[in-house]
Amino acid sequence: MSVQSRQDVHRHTCTLCEAGCGITVAVDRDRVLEVRGDPDDPASRGYICPKATALADLHHDPDRLRQPMVRDGDRWTEVSWEEAFDLVGRRLREIRERHGRDSVGVYQGNPTAHNLGLLTYGQVLFRGLGTRNVYSATSVDQLPHMLAAYLMFGHQLLMPVPDIDRTDLFVCLGGNPVVSNGSIMTAPDMRTRLKALARRGGRAVVLDPRRTETAELTGEHHFIRPGTDALLLMSLVHVLFTERLVRTGHLGEYLTGLDRLREAAVDFPPERTSEVTGVDPAVARRLARDLAGTERAVLYGRVGTCTQEFGGLNGWLLVAVNALAGNLDTPGGAMFTTPAVDAVPAARWAGHAGSFARYGSRVRGLPEFGGELPVSVLAEEIETPGDGRIRALVTSAGNPVLSTPNGARLERSLERLDFMVSVDPYLNETTRHADVILPPTSQLERSHYPLALANYAVRNTARYSQAVFRRAADQRHDWEICIGLAAQLFRPANALLRQAARLGWRALRALGPEPIVALGLRLGPHGLRRGRHGVSLRKLRERQQGIDLGPLESRLPDRLPGRSSTIALAPAEYLADVARLRERLANASPDGLVLIGRRQLRSNNSWMHNSPRLVKGRPRCTLLMHPDDAAERGLADGELATLSSRAGRIDVPVEVSDAMMPGVVSLPHGWGHHRPGARLSVAGAHPGASMNDVTDEYLVDELTGTGAITGVPVAVHARETVAG
Ligand SMILES: Nc1nc2c(c(=O)[nH]1)N[C@H]1C(S)=C(S)[C@@H](COP(=O)(O)OP(=O)(O)OC[C@H]3O[C@@H](n4cnc5c(=O)[nH]c(N)nc54)[C@H](O)[C@@H]3O)O[C@H]1N2
Ligand SMILES: Nc1nc2c(c(=O)[nH]1)N[C@H]1C(S)=C(S)[C@@H](COP(=O)(O)OP(=O)(O)OC[C@H]3O[C@@H](n4cnc5c(=O)[nH]c(N)nc54)[C@H](O)[C@@H]3O)O[C@H]1N2
Ligand code: SF4
Ligand SMILES: [Mo]
Q1: Which of these three, 574, 602, 628, is where a domain ends?
Q2: Structure confidence by residue, pLDDT tens digits, 193-227
Q3: What is the total count of domains within the chain?
Q4: What does pTM read for this prediction?
Q5: How far away, in angstroms, is 598 Cα from ligand 2 center?
Q6: Which residue stretches of 450-551 are H helix?
Q7: What torsion, rounded to 10 degrees, do the Cα atoms 613, 112, 338, 466 define?
Q8: 372 within domain boundaries
Q9: Most C-beta atoms within 10 A of its C-beta, which of 151, 164, 355, 682?
């Protein structure tokens, strides 16, 4: 009898990455028997990657924390939720009252985006603290795309996504969707989607310093030197203008700044930029021609284009090239979604349509974006004395010690805090420095609706998942933890108001996040206005496999917020930064190696290496290196090398590979689990080394402050054997 035919099979959603695949979970009482892809899910259609099955490992992981923990030196004690909330509330209130709001810092990590509770009540709590010291993984990820959305379309969430299922030319820069399963392009099973593209006669081109898994699949690949994409993109703009290929179609009357954009690109013909980028000028010219000449074509850039020296310019130019080539807001091009719960008006209503550089960070003056500061300044904001120094830190769903530039320095700075609290299911490299850890329920114990990522899906669908398991009475969801903390921190002075607030928090605790989803669905574009065919939470509860709402549609100009309804092709902020790009062109590339990252299918940032099935096999934290570079340093495959930069040094085994561009080495991030005091028995036995012990907090994109974690100058040499 197949497990799937048993009675206890629940539909759920895998919330580990942006793809958000539909899954079925077969259970026997409180045990997971099997996780499979849900063939009825309209977006993922039965696909899952190996990480979905690890949801069972996570749920049953004996290392996963179930009770609040309080630290005393090296000792941890479990305490009740009441005690934990009281302690955290008292300490944070004390510090805030004494040293002001900015003395409490917040760091929110990547799983926030996949967590209904953190996307709702979490934002109320963390934003409500009113501190300037708000940090998140955004500034080592998609910030440049969000800035472009804000400066060009007027709203930070208006990021277009490739209409991958209808395009005939997919140009991929700095993304590896076959492994990452798509990002700002929710597209489960990219392998099948790319094969379908080839079958309908389409073409995909990858530009990447490594011949990636995506490049192997698509066939056409060109090396590009890390950090030089803005030069290539400027060349594409240059060719589009000089070869009179610009066709703005239905957007023509809304575009502003065409002339300024053309002028900005004058100095960047492909023949000039190719020496720096390493991309043959004929290839660049052909790309521009094909992007403009192919009816359904799209240029897509992702994390490799963001987290580098010119991340800001890349965010801009990616949109600009699509607009000039007639590929913005057209089928098969870069399109805006029509999600069932539309975050765009909701964010505008909440005052989060975007902001940039309203103020700078206290020590280094890096710009604010969307009310956040770049995480590259977090350590110095903790270390540097003076008014506004961070004395208490709240981390939620983040592991910045392994994930942010020069995590080793950040780690040392955490020791200087007066107080730290972490909302996290693990005692890991970051949370081991906390005074209190508040662990939420597991992914299978909570309901899910993709409030954030449905806004970036390549097809409009809606799926709501109920929890597979009920949480135990003594456990708390993320949203319950956030309400518990908010109740402690937002306490009116007046006794009567305090009583009213208490009732308010109790009411919210009874309601949970579902009413927010229900309301969002009703008010959304597929809700009430579709009459009885409209999507509602009740309908989604009945149709747990999800509802297909159709392919992406042209949304401009209606999607543009505000009265002006324009698309700014040449915002002043970007034009000012072009000077820096000119300098880059004028100066020769420095000699020596540069380091880039690499994602792996059985890994998810820093936190899934405690799943036995994901870490089995050969060690994966290896340094890929071109054969010539290895030979020059006398390094052979499998040998240990020392990798060093201004920021630090680590030892890693070398894997010689001609998939690397000469002069470039690649290491996955999220490893480095050797740190003492973490409670990660499986990860600790497969430690690897942390790439972010080598990345540099002072290497940032000067325009946006985004951490330049790709293209880091490094030296590699055979590890010195220590005598004795
Ligand atoms: N060198 C290098 N560095 C990088 C990158 C890179 O490519 N190279 N990539 C960057 C990118 S794109 C990102 S997004 C960041 C990620 O940076 P982070 O978000 O800081 O790191 P993660 O490894 O995702 O850590 C997630 C944390 O959340 C916890 N967690 C998991 N699920 C939940 C949950 O449901 N609730 C709560 N409260 N906690 C949960 C985990 O235990 C873990 O501690 O890393 C960035 N850093
Ligand atoms: N299996 C798995 N899936 C994941 C994650 C994971 O850790 N594991 N993380 C999730 C997260 S948080 C995110 S943000 C997404 C990211 O999704 P993607 O953007 O697809 O991420 P990567 O696979 O890191 O792809 C980045 C690519 O950029 C290349 N690159 C590096 N530097 C440069 C450069 O300067 N220029 C160019 N053109 N290319 C460069 C790298 O070689 C790499 O192939 O993936 C998500 N999905
Ligand atoms: S691609 Fe894998 S990790 Fe991502 S949602 Fe799907 S099954 Fe989960
Ligand atoms: Mo990310």
Answers
A1: 574
A2: 999 999 999 999 999 999 999 999 998 999 999 99
A3: 4
A4: 0.98
A5: 6
A6: 478-489, 495-511, 514-523, 537-542
A7: 60
A8: yes
A9: 164
